Structures are given as C-alpha cells and as structure tokens.
TrEMBL record:
<dbReference type="GO" id="GO:0005829">
    <property type="term" value="C:cytosol"/>
</dbReference>
<dbReference type="GO" id="GO:0008696">
    <property type="term" value="F:4-amino-4-deoxychorismate lyase activity"/>
</dbReference>
<dbReference type="Pfam" id="PF01063">
    <property type="entry name" value="Aminotran_4"/>
</dbReference>
<keyword id="KW-0663">Pyridoxal phosphate</keyword>
<comment type="similarity">
    <text>Belongs to the class-IV pyridoxal-phosphate-dependent aminotransferase family.</text>
</comment>
<comment type="subunit">
    <text>Homodimer.</text>
</comment>
<dbReference type="InterPro" id="IPR017824">
    <property type="entry name" value="Aminodeoxychorismate_lyase_IV"/>
</dbReference>
<dbReference type="InterPro" id="IPR043131">
    <property type="entry name" value="BCAT-like_N"/>
</dbReference>
<dbReference type="GO" id="GO:0046656">
    <property type="term" value="P:folic acid biosynthetic process"/>
</dbReference>
<keyword id="KW-0456">Lyase</keyword>
<dbReference type="GO" id="GO:0030170">
    <property type="term" value="F:pyridoxal phosphate binding"/>
</dbReference>
<comment type="pathway">
    <text>Cofactor biosynthesis; tetrahydrofolate biosynthesis; 4-aminobenzoate from chorismate: step 2/2.</text>
</comment>
<dbReference type="GO" id="GO:0008153">
    <property type="term" value="P:4-aminobenzoate biosynthetic process"/>
</dbReference>
<dbReference type="InterPro" id="IPR050571">
    <property type="entry name" value="Class-IV_PLP-Dep_Aminotrnsfr"/>
</dbReference>
<dbReference type="InterPro" id="IPR001544">
    <property type="entry name" value="Aminotrans_IV"/>
</dbReference>
<dbReference type="InterPro" id="IPR036038">
    <property type="entry name" value="Aminotransferase-like"/>
</dbReference>
<keyword id="KW-0289">Folate biosynthesis</keyword>
Amino acid sequence: MRSPATIWVDGKLAAALPLPDRGLDFGDGVFETVLLWHGKPQFLTYHLARLETGLQKLSFPECRATAAEHLHMAASAFTDTPWAVMRLAVTRGSGPRGYAAPDQAVPRTIISAAPLQQDRKQAPSPIALAYAGITWASQPALAGIKHLNRLEQVLAANEARAAQVDDVVVLDGGGHVCSLSSANLFLVEEGRLVTPAITTTGIAGTRRRLVIEQLAPALGLTVVEETVAVSRLEQAAELFCCNSIRGLQPVARLGDTAWSEFPIALALHQQYCDTMTC
C-alpha cells in the first residue's frame, strides 16, 4: 500500500526540505512535471532530454541518472493509482551565501506526487482564453528550459483567474505571441500547424515536441515554428494548447472570437491517446 507521504528528497520520503537550498533561495534549478498512469511515466524520454538540456545550460554537475533513478522509485509507489502527476525538481543543493554557485555543488532531487481524478484520455473540454497584461521577458540563455523561476507564470495565472478564463495568451516584449501561462499554443492555418518559435523566451514543452515530431506527422500535418503576430490568432481555423497534464485542449474562445468545431485538435488528441504507454 502506498504511503500517505508524497514528497521525496534525494530518493527518501521526507516531510521537510533541508535548508539552505539554492532552489528556494535563487530558483537555481530545473523541474519536470510528469504524467503517470499506474506508475508509468508518460513520454519520459522527452522529459529527461529537456531536463538534461536545462542542467547543462545551468552548468550543473552530472546528475540526470540519479534524478531518473529517484523518479522511477517514486513512480513505483503509484502503481495502484490510474492517473497521477509527479513534479521532479533538481536544485543545486546547499551552498554559502551569494549568487555564485559553489565549486563543489551537490545537486538535490525533490519529488512530489499526487493522484489526478480525471481520466487523461477523456475528450478534452474546450477552454476560454484572454490576453495577458504581463509579457514574457527575453533571455535567450534560459529560453526553452523549465527552470525554477516561475514568477512570470504566477502573475499570468493570477490574471487568468481575475478574468475568469481558463488561461491567458502571453506575448513577448515585441508584441508577438509566445504561449499560455502554462501551455504551448498551436494555430491551425490552411491545413498546417503553426507554433511560436522558442528563441528568446518560453518553454519548449514536451507535448509541443511530441506534436511536432510524432502526432502531426502521423496525421500528415506540416508543423511550422515561426514568429506569430496576434492578428493571426483570431483568423486561425483552430487554436489548441498542450502541456504534460492537460494533454491537448482546443480553444473555444479568445476574447471576442469563438470557435465551435475542432476537427484537427480532436484528431491530434486521439493520436495522443494512442501514443501513450497505457
């Protein structure tokens, strides 16, 4: 029977985080949010690849293998749970005061997990969006990775709640479309898929990569990564978003623009379900 504890630190069940920790002090680390089905991590190869990219960009000592080992250990506690969500964070661990990383850093893994009530293979409910007031800051050195600094996302999520919508479309400093607060965005234009390029800001989502590399090609769809102007959103035949927990969700409303049919998004969702290791 699974222990009621849902937090592991360095592979051991824990109730508290050892301090000091540079992840808490400075956001010095990366994380992955992994979907589990009866303890099986979904699309783990993509998660571990992005984790490795983040660790390299932040100049962490080699620790991917240890992180993966701890993740599998924690996931095995959920074999009796149909669906669960797991958050794996890797911080630079403890260190002296100051921003500079210690010469001999010892990375720390922090894992939390909880059951999900909804069957992630169910047809997704279309969502309503608004435009965010906040914009994503430009920082090419961090673009693509899922680092622990998420205050921009907190502010964007607060805007979505205040606007009483499911999420918000966030632009970059130049006024171009980036993503939602916690998901990547795709447009359907003339039978092809378009998604904002990730060069100076944003997260390279695992489900975004899955759509580009597997799901769209399986349906004969071309995917283009490019700069996207706001005007193109409201002219698109469809919009849909994706992340590791939502899967693929069609957009029913963005501001004053509404969509009622989502054939491409739903076809991709079915392909997504068929690709899961369930």
